[in-house]
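Worked Example 4.2. Read the sequence first, then its C-alpha coordinates.
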Amino acid sequence: MGRQLLEMAHVTAFYGDSQALFDISLKVHAGQLVALMGRNGMGKTTTIRTICGLLNIGSGTIHFDGQDMASRPRHAVARLGIGLVPEGRRCFPNLTVEENLLVASRPGIWTCAKVTDLFPRLGERRDQLAISLSGGEQQMLAIGRALMTNPRLLLLDEATEGLAPVIRHEIWAAITTLKQENNLAILVVDKSLRELREIADYAYILQRGATVWQGDISALNRELTMRHLGV
Protein backbone atom coordinates (compact mmCIF):
# COMPACT_ATOMS: atom_id res chain seq x y z
CA MET A 1 0.00 0.00 0.00
CA GLY A 2 1.34 3.43 -0.96
CA ARG A 3 1.37 6.69 0.88
CA GLN A 4 -1.90 7.89 2.38
CA LEU A 5 -3.36 10.64 0.21
CA LEU A 6 -6.90 11.29 1.42
CA GLU A 7 -8.25 11.17 4.95
CA MET A 8 -11.72 12.24 6.06
CA ALA A 9 -12.28 12.08 9.82
CA HIS A 10 -15.78 12.43 11.34
CA VAL A 11 -16.91 14.90 8.66
CA THR A 12 -20.30 16.58 8.72
CA ALA A 13 -21.65 18.73 5.88
CA PHE A 14 -24.77 20.69 5.02
CA TYR A 15 -26.87 21.79 2.06
CA GLY A 16 -27.92 25.16 3.43
CA ASP A 17 -29.58 24.42 6.76
CA SER A 18 -30.14 20.76 5.94
CA GLN A 19 -27.51 18.36 7.26
CA ALA A 20 -26.45 15.78 4.67
CA LEU A 21 -23.35 14.17 6.19
CA PHE A 22 -23.29 13.18 9.85
CA ASP A 23 -20.08 11.22 10.41
CA ILE A 24 -17.96 10.29 7.37
CA SER A 25 -14.54 8.76 7.91
CA LEU A 26 -12.45 7.16 5.17
CA LYS A 27 -8.90 6.88 3.85
CA VAL A 28 -7.42 6.32 0.39
CA HIS A 29 -3.77 5.48 -0.29
CA ALA A 30 -1.72 5.89 -3.47
CA GLY A 31 -2.16 2.92 -5.80
CA GLN A 32 -5.31 1.81 -3.97
CA LEU A 33 -8.80 1.47 -5.41
CA VAL A 34 -11.47 2.08 -2.77
CA ALA A 35 -15.19 1.48 -3.25
CA LEU A 36 -17.66 3.88 -1.65
CA MET A 37 -20.96 2.05 -1.36
CA GLY A 38 -24.46 2.38 0.02
CA ARG A 39 -28.09 2.53 -1.00
CA ASN A 40 -29.43 5.54 -2.91
CA GLY A 41 -29.57 8.75 -0.91
CA MET A 42 -27.10 7.65 1.76
CA GLY A 43 -24.52 10.37 1.10
CA LYS A 44 -22.11 8.96 -1.48
CA THR A 45 -22.29 11.80 -4.00
CA THR A 46 -22.41 14.34 -1.18
CA THR A 47 -19.18 12.86 0.18
CA ILE A 48 -17.54 13.24 -3.24
CA ARG A 49 -18.76 16.82 -3.50
CA THR A 50 -17.43 17.58 -0.02
CA ILE A 51 -13.99 16.20 -0.90
CA CYS A 52 -13.93 18.53 -3.92
CA GLY A 53 -14.81 21.58 -1.84
CA LEU A 54 -18.29 21.96 -3.31
CA LEU A 55 -19.81 21.81 0.19
CA ASN A 56 -18.45 23.40 3.33
CA ILE A 57 -17.83 20.99 6.16
CA GLY A 58 -19.53 21.62 9.46
CA SER A 59 -17.10 19.65 11.60
CA GLY A 60 -14.39 17.04 11.25
CA THR A 61 -11.34 17.23 8.99
CA ILE A 62 -10.34 16.49 5.42
CA HIS A 63 -6.65 16.16 4.57
CA PHE A 64 -5.06 15.47 1.19
CA ASP A 65 -1.41 14.48 1.26
CA GLY A 66 -1.21 15.97 4.74
CA GLN A 67 -2.73 19.33 3.77
CA ASP A 68 -5.90 20.65 5.38
CA MET A 69 -8.57 20.97 2.68
CA ALA A 70 -11.37 22.54 4.70
CA SER A 71 -10.59 26.16 3.95
CA ARG A 72 -9.36 25.78 0.37
CA PRO A 73 -11.38 27.15 -2.58
CA ARG A 74 -12.56 24.69 -5.23
CA HIS A 75 -9.89 25.48 -7.81
CA ALA A 76 -7.16 25.01 -5.21
CA VAL A 77 -8.51 21.53 -4.38
CA ALA A 78 -8.17 20.51 -8.04
CA ARG A 79 -4.63 21.86 -8.17
CA LEU A 80 -3.63 19.63 -5.28
CA GLY A 81 -4.17 16.68 -7.60
CA ILE A 82 -7.80 15.59 -7.33
CA GLY A 83 -9.62 14.70 -10.55
CA LEU A 84 -13.41 14.39 -10.55
CA VAL A 85 -15.62 12.38 -12.90
CA PRO A 86 -19.00 13.74 -11.77
CA GLU A 87 -22.32 11.97 -11.77
CA GLY A 88 -24.05 12.82 -15.06
CA ARG A 89 -20.78 13.33 -17.01
CA ARG A 90 -21.17 17.09 -17.65
CA CYS A 91 -19.02 17.33 -20.77
CA PHE A 92 -18.90 20.66 -22.57
CA PRO A 93 -21.50 19.94 -25.29
CA ASN A 94 -20.38 22.50 -27.88
CA LEU A 95 -16.68 21.67 -27.69
CA THR A 96 -15.09 18.83 -29.61
CA VAL A 97 -13.71 15.75 -27.92
CA GLU A 98 -10.19 17.10 -28.26
CA GLU A 99 -11.20 20.53 -26.94
CA ASN A 100 -12.89 18.92 -23.92
CA LEU A 101 -9.63 17.17 -23.14
CA LEU A 102 -7.37 20.15 -23.73
CA VAL A 103 -9.42 22.55 -21.64
CA ALA A 104 -8.62 20.47 -18.56
CA SER A 105 -4.99 19.80 -19.42
CA ARG A 106 -2.25 20.19 -16.83
CA PRO A 107 1.39 19.08 -17.16
CA GLY A 108 2.05 15.40 -16.57
CA ILE A 109 1.96 11.96 -18.12
CA TRP A 110 -1.66 12.21 -19.31
CA THR A 111 -1.95 13.69 -22.79
CA CYS A 112 -4.59 13.47 -25.51
CA ALA A 113 -2.63 10.62 -27.08
CA LYS A 114 -2.49 8.67 -23.83
CA VAL A 115 -6.22 9.19 -23.19
CA THR A 116 -7.11 7.97 -26.69
CA ASP A 117 -4.88 4.93 -26.14
CA LEU A 118 -7.03 4.16 -23.09
CA PHE A 119 -10.27 4.94 -24.96
CA PRO A 120 -9.75 4.41 -28.73
CA ARG A 121 -13.33 5.52 -29.41
CA LEU A 122 -12.35 9.04 -28.36
CA GLY A 123 -9.53 9.06 -30.88
CA GLU A 124 -11.97 8.08 -33.62
CA ARG A 125 -14.27 10.94 -32.61
CA ARG A 126 -11.60 13.52 -31.83
CA ASP A 127 -13.19 16.25 -33.98
CA GLN A 128 -16.83 15.55 -33.08
CA LEU A 129 -18.79 17.77 -30.72
CA ALA A 130 -19.36 16.19 -27.32
CA ILE A 131 -23.11 16.59 -27.72
CA SER A 132 -23.01 14.18 -30.68
CA LEU A 133 -21.49 11.35 -28.64
CA SER A 134 -23.42 8.48 -27.10
CA GLY A 135 -23.86 8.40 -23.35
CA GLY A 136 -21.10 5.84 -22.98
CA GLU A 137 -18.71 7.86 -25.13
CA GLN A 138 -19.46 10.96 -23.09
CA GLN A 139 -18.62 8.96 -19.95
CA MET A 140 -15.29 7.98 -21.49
CA LEU A 141 -14.70 11.63 -22.31
CA ALA A 142 -15.49 12.67 -18.73
CA ILE A 143 -12.95 10.16 -17.44
CA GLY A 144 -10.39 11.28 -20.01
CA ARG A 145 -10.94 14.92 -19.10
CA ALA A 146 -10.33 14.15 -15.41
CA LEU A 147 -7.15 12.27 -16.30
CA MET A 148 -5.92 15.27 -18.31
CA THR A 149 -5.66 17.17 -15.03
CA ASN A 150 -2.97 14.59 -14.15
CA PRO A 151 -4.48 13.81 -10.75
CA ARG A 152 -3.04 11.77 -7.91
CA LEU A 153 -6.56 10.90 -6.74
CA LEU A 154 -9.35 10.10 -9.20
CA LEU A 155 -12.96 10.31 -7.98
CA LEU A 156 -15.46 8.32 -10.06
CA ASP A 157 -19.09 8.99 -9.21
CA GLU A 158 -21.39 6.36 -10.80
CA ALA A 159 -19.17 6.02 -13.86
CA THR A 160 -21.11 3.05 -15.28
CA GLU A 161 -24.66 4.01 -14.26
CA GLY A 162 -27.25 3.41 -16.99
CA LEU A 163 -24.79 2.36 -19.68
CA ALA A 164 -25.06 -0.55 -22.10
CA PRO A 165 -23.23 -3.71 -20.97
CA VAL A 166 -20.57 -3.50 -23.70
CA ILE A 167 -19.73 0.09 -22.70
CA ARG A 168 -19.73 -0.81 -19.01
CA HIS A 169 -17.23 -3.54 -19.79
CA GLU A 170 -14.95 -1.09 -21.63
CA ILE A 171 -15.05 1.39 -18.75
CA TRP A 172 -14.35 -1.25 -16.10
CA ALA A 173 -11.45 -2.51 -18.25
CA ALA A 174 -10.07 1.04 -18.40
CA ILE A 175 -10.40 1.46 -14.62
CA THR A 176 -8.56 -1.84 -14.16
CA THR A 177 -5.80 -0.56 -16.44
CA LEU A 178 -5.55 2.67 -14.44
CA LYS A 179 -5.16 0.70 -11.24
CA GLN A 180 -2.57 -1.70 -12.63
CA GLU A 181 -0.39 0.69 -14.59
CA ASN A 182 -0.36 3.86 -12.53
CA ASN A 183 0.29 4.75 -8.89
CA LEU A 184 -3.08 6.46 -8.93
CA ALA A 185 -5.45 6.49 -5.97
CA ILE A 186 -9.03 5.83 -7.08
CA LEU A 187 -12.26 6.30 -5.11
CA VAL A 188 -15.23 4.72 -6.91
CA VAL A 189 -18.92 5.21 -6.21
CA ASP A 190 -20.78 2.41 -7.97
CA LYS A 191 -23.53 -0.15 -7.43
CA SER A 192 -21.81 -2.87 -9.49
CA LEU A 193 -20.81 -5.16 -6.65
CA ARG A 194 -19.62 -7.95 -8.95
CA GLU A 195 -17.16 -5.69 -10.78
CA LEU A 196 -16.07 -3.97 -7.58
CA ARG A 197 -15.24 -7.30 -5.97
CA GLU A 198 -12.84 -8.01 -8.81
CA ILE A 199 -10.97 -4.70 -8.69
CA ALA A 200 -11.37 -2.88 -5.35
CA ASP A 201 -8.91 -3.28 -2.50
CA TYR A 202 -11.06 -1.81 0.25
CA ALA A 203 -14.64 -0.66 0.76
CA TYR A 204 -16.63 1.77 2.86
CA ILE A 205 -20.40 1.59 3.24
CA LEU A 206 -22.45 4.68 4.04
CA GLN A 207 -25.85 4.81 5.66
CA ARG A 208 -27.74 8.03 6.32
CA GLY A 209 -24.64 10.16 5.88
CA ALA A 210 -22.34 8.12 8.12
CA THR A 211 -19.70 5.44 7.64
CA VAL A 212 -21.21 2.22 9.02
CA TRP A 213 -18.81 -0.43 7.68
CA GLN A 214 -15.28 -0.63 6.33
CA GLY A 215 -12.95 -3.43 5.41
CA ASP A 216 -11.32 -5.44 2.64
CA ILE A 217 -13.92 -5.92 -0.06
CA SER A 218 -13.34 -9.68 0.17
CA ALA A 219 -14.88 -9.50 3.67
CA LEU A 220 -18.14 -8.10 2.31
CA ASN A 221 -20.22 -11.26 2.71
CA ARG A 222 -23.85 -11.98 1.88
CA GLU A 223 -25.12 -10.98 5.33
CA LEU A 224 -23.39 -7.58 5.17
CA THR A 225 -24.52 -6.87 1.63
CA MET A 226 -28.12 -7.71 2.51
CA ARG A 227 -28.01 -5.58 5.64
CA HIS A 228 -26.34 -2.50 4.20
CA LEU A 229 -26.86 -2.67 0.42
CA GLY A 230 -30.04 -4.66 0.03
CA VAL A 231 -28.52 -6.97 -2.61
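Now turn to a second chain, presented in exactly the same format:
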Amino acid sequence: MEENLRKGRYNSADKIELRSKEIQEILSRPPKWLIRYGIGIIFVVIVVVFVGSYFIEYPDMIKGKVVLISKQKAKIIVPIQNSGKIKNNQTINIKFDNYPYMEYGILKTQISNLKLLPSKDSAECYEFLISLPDTLKTNYNTTLPYISQMQGSAEIIIENKRLLHKFIQIGR
Protein backbone atom coordinates (compact mmCIF):
# COMPACT_ATOMS: atom_id res chain seq x y z
CA MET A 1 0.00 0.00 0.00
CA GLU A 2 2.80 2.39 0.85
CA GLU A 3 4.42 1.61 -2.48
CA ASN A 4 1.17 2.41 -4.34
CA LEU A 5 0.90 5.68 -2.43
CA ARG A 6 4.40 6.73 -3.47
CA LYS A 7 3.79 5.90 -7.11
CA GLY A 8 0.40 7.68 -7.14
CA ARG A 9 -1.52 4.54 -8.06
CA TYR A 10 -3.55 4.35 -4.87
CA ASN A 11 -7.26 4.99 -5.27
CA SER A 12 -8.94 5.71 -1.92
CA ALA A 13 -12.36 4.71 -3.26
CA ASP A 14 -11.10 1.16 -3.67
CA LYS A 15 -10.32 0.71 0.00
CA ILE A 16 -12.95 2.88 1.80
CA GLU A 17 -16.64 1.99 1.82
CA LEU A 18 -18.90 4.96 2.42
CA ARG A 19 -21.91 2.81 3.30
CA SER A 20 -22.25 -0.77 4.33
CA LYS A 21 -23.85 -3.25 1.95
CA GLU A 22 -27.01 -3.38 4.10
CA ILE A 23 -27.47 0.41 3.92
CA GLN A 24 -26.83 0.44 0.18
CA GLU A 25 -29.44 -2.29 -0.27
CA ILE A 26 -32.04 -0.30 1.71
CA LEU A 27 -31.31 2.90 -0.23
CA SER A 28 -31.45 1.19 -3.60
CA ARG A 29 -34.98 -0.21 -3.09
CA PRO A 30 -37.86 2.21 -2.46
CA PRO A 31 -40.50 0.95 0.00
CA LYS A 32 -43.26 -1.19 -1.54
CA TRP A 33 -46.03 1.02 -0.14
CA LEU A 34 -44.51 4.03 -1.91
CA ILE A 35 -44.56 2.24 -5.24
CA ARG A 36 -48.08 0.91 -4.69
CA TYR A 37 -49.82 4.01 -3.24
CA GLY A 38 -47.49 6.95 -3.97
CA ILE A 39 -48.96 8.08 -7.28
CA GLY A 40 -52.51 7.62 -5.95
CA ILE A 41 -51.77 9.75 -2.89
CA ILE A 42 -50.28 12.52 -5.03
CA PHE A 43 -53.34 12.41 -7.32
CA VAL A 44 -55.76 12.60 -4.35
CA VAL A 45 -53.89 15.60 -2.89
CA ILE A 46 -54.06 17.47 -6.22
CA VAL A 47 -57.80 16.72 -6.59
CA VAL A 48 -58.48 17.93 -3.02
CA VAL A 49 -56.60 21.18 -3.69
CA PHE A 50 -58.58 21.87 -6.88
CA VAL A 51 -61.95 20.98 -5.34
CA GLY A 52 -61.14 23.13 -2.29
CA SER A 53 -60.12 26.05 -4.49
CA TYR A 54 -63.57 26.02 -6.08
CA PHE A 55 -65.20 26.80 -2.73
CA ILE A 56 -62.75 29.50 -1.61
CA GLU A 57 -63.48 33.02 -2.89
CA TYR A 58 -60.68 35.44 -3.61
CA PRO A 59 -61.51 39.15 -3.96
CA ASP A 60 -60.17 41.06 -6.95
CA MET A 61 -59.45 44.57 -5.65
CA ILE A 62 -57.92 47.94 -6.43
CA LYS A 63 -56.02 49.74 -3.68
CA GLY A 64 -55.97 53.48 -3.19
CA LYS A 65 -55.68 56.27 -0.62
CA VAL A 66 -58.56 57.79 1.30
CA VAL A 67 -58.76 61.26 2.88
CA LEU A 68 -61.70 62.43 5.01
CA ILE A 69 -63.07 65.74 3.75
CA SER A 70 -66.02 66.08 6.13
CA LYS A 71 -68.02 63.86 8.48
CA GLN A 72 -70.07 62.57 5.56
CA LYS A 73 -67.58 62.70 2.64
CA ALA A 74 -64.24 61.16 1.80
CA LYS A 75 -61.99 61.41 -1.23
CA ILE A 76 -60.45 58.25 -2.66
CA ILE A 77 -57.39 58.45 -4.91
CA VAL A 78 -56.74 55.42 -7.15
CA PRO A 79 -54.13 54.75 -9.84
CA ILE A 80 -55.24 55.03 -13.47
CA GLN A 81 -54.38 51.38 -14.08
CA ASN A 82 -57.56 49.22 -13.86
CA SER A 83 -59.66 52.23 -12.80
CA GLY A 84 -62.18 51.42 -15.54
CA LYS A 85 -63.31 48.42 -13.47
CA ILE A 86 -64.63 50.67 -10.67
CA LYS A 87 -68.43 50.89 -10.71
CA ASN A 88 -71.32 51.89 -8.47
CA ASN A 89 -72.42 49.57 -5.63
CA GLN A 90 -68.95 48.06 -5.15
CA THR A 91 -67.76 47.60 -1.57
CA ILE A 92 -64.91 49.69 -0.18
CA ASN A 93 -62.88 48.62 2.86
CA ILE A 94 -61.25 51.62 4.56
CA LYS A 95 -58.31 51.21 6.94
CA PHE A 96 -57.36 54.43 8.73
CA ASP A 97 -53.71 55.13 9.46
CA ASN A 98 -54.52 56.59 12.92
CA TYR A 99 -56.28 53.41 14.03
CA PRO A 100 -54.62 50.04 13.28
CA TYR A 101 -57.21 47.90 11.52
CA MET A 102 -56.20 44.72 13.40
CA GLU A 103 -57.22 46.42 16.65
CA TYR A 104 -60.03 48.80 15.61
CA GLY A 105 -61.40 47.10 12.51
CA ILE A 106 -62.30 48.17 8.98
CA LEU A 107 -64.91 50.69 7.89
CA LYS A 108 -67.08 49.29 5.09
CA THR A 109 -69.02 51.44 2.66
CA GLN A 110 -70.18 51.38 -0.96
CA ILE A 111 -69.70 53.53 -4.03
CA SER A 112 -72.92 55.40 -4.83
CA ASN A 113 -72.32 58.23 -7.34
CA LEU A 114 -69.10 57.45 -9.15
CA LYS A 115 -67.45 60.31 -11.03
CA LEU A 116 -63.77 59.67 -11.74
CA LEU A 117 -61.87 62.94 -12.01
CA PRO A 118 -58.18 63.50 -12.72
CA SER A 119 -56.29 63.92 -9.46
CA LYS A 120 -54.92 67.34 -8.55
CA ASP A 121 -51.95 65.72 -6.80
CA SER A 122 -50.75 63.34 -9.51
CA ALA A 123 -51.25 62.96 -13.25
CA GLU A 124 -51.27 59.16 -12.91
CA CYS A 125 -54.27 58.98 -10.56
CA TYR A 126 -58.02 59.49 -10.49
CA GLU A 127 -60.05 60.60 -7.53
CA PHE A 128 -63.71 60.34 -6.59
CA LEU A 129 -65.91 61.16 -3.62
CA ILE A 130 -67.80 58.67 -1.49
CA SER A 131 -70.45 59.09 1.18
CA LEU A 132 -69.68 57.82 4.65
CA PRO A 133 -72.14 56.47 7.22
CA ASP A 134 -73.32 58.81 10.00
CA THR A 135 -70.91 57.22 12.46
CA LEU A 136 -67.54 55.76 11.59
CA LYS A 137 -68.46 52.32 12.99
CA THR A 138 -66.06 49.53 12.03
CA ASN A 139 -66.70 45.83 11.59
CA TYR A 140 -65.43 45.34 15.20
CA ASN A 141 -68.30 47.60 16.44
CA THR A 142 -65.81 50.30 17.36
CA THR A 143 -66.91 53.88 16.66
CA LEU A 144 -63.98 55.98 15.47
CA PRO A 145 -63.98 59.71 16.18
CA TYR A 146 -63.96 62.02 13.17
CA ILE A 147 -60.61 63.77 12.71
CA SER A 148 -60.34 66.34 9.92
CA GLN A 149 -58.14 65.21 7.00
CA MET A 150 -57.71 61.71 8.52
CA GLN A 151 -56.00 59.46 5.99
CA GLY A 152 -55.85 55.78 5.30
CA SER A 153 -55.95 53.12 2.64
CA ALA A 154 -58.94 51.96 0.62
CA GLU A 155 -59.52 48.58 -0.98
CA ILE A 156 -62.21 48.62 -3.65
CA ILE A 157 -63.52 45.09 -4.15
CA ILE A 158 -64.12 44.77 -7.89
CA GLU A 159 -65.49 41.21 -7.75
CA ASN A 160 -65.19 38.02 -5.76
CA LYS A 161 -63.75 35.25 -7.90
CA ARG A 162 -63.34 31.64 -6.97
CA LEU A 163 -59.72 30.69 -6.36
CA LEU A 164 -60.02 28.00 -9.04
CA HIS A 165 -60.79 30.70 -11.63
CA LYS A 166 -57.65 32.57 -10.55
CA PHE A 167 -55.60 29.36 -11.07
CA ILE A 168 -57.09 28.93 -14.54
CA GLN A 169 -56.39 32.58 -15.46
CA ILE A 170 -52.74 32.26 -14.41
CA GLY A 171 -52.38 29.28 -16.77
CA ARG A 172 -53.52 31.29 -19.78
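Notes for the reader: The chain has a mean pLDDT of 84. The helical segments are 2-7, 12-15, 21-28, 32-55, 101-104, 163-171.
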